[in-house]
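Request: Show me your protein:
***
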Amino acid sequence: MKEIENILESKGVRPTAMRLLIYKFMAKKERALALTDIEDAFEKADRTTLYRTLKTFEEKGVVHQIDDGTGVQKYAVCDQGCNCDLEQDLHLHFHCNTCGETVCLTEQKIPHINLPEGFVAEDANLVLKGICDKCTSVAS
């Protein structure tokens, strides 16, 4: 847990017991999670506390939000060194149409896009949709 404490503190997040547990849970999953996934794992926790934790993590760059087209916002833990910067640090996401999981493809960077003068980008999201490796191996 000390390592998680250090990660949170380095991002300016006070490492409360609940924040440590949520971070550990999310990091272990290695996929994007919806608020309901976290609620299911922490049944006795207050929903507002879970939501506020996710929002704090997002504001401080601990997690990033993914709109995978399902209508449900998902959150994934940022890699070490990631700052989720719109200009330099964007990557692809993959949503499996079979199992519904969304994963970060952090090795696949989105190239910088030069916008016309006067345009200001506020968000970018690129999601590939198809069948993940787990589901294609089950089908074979």
In short: Strands lie at 33-34, 63-67, 73-77, 91-96, 102-109, 127-130. The chain is about 35% helix and 20% strand. The longest helix spans residues 17-29.
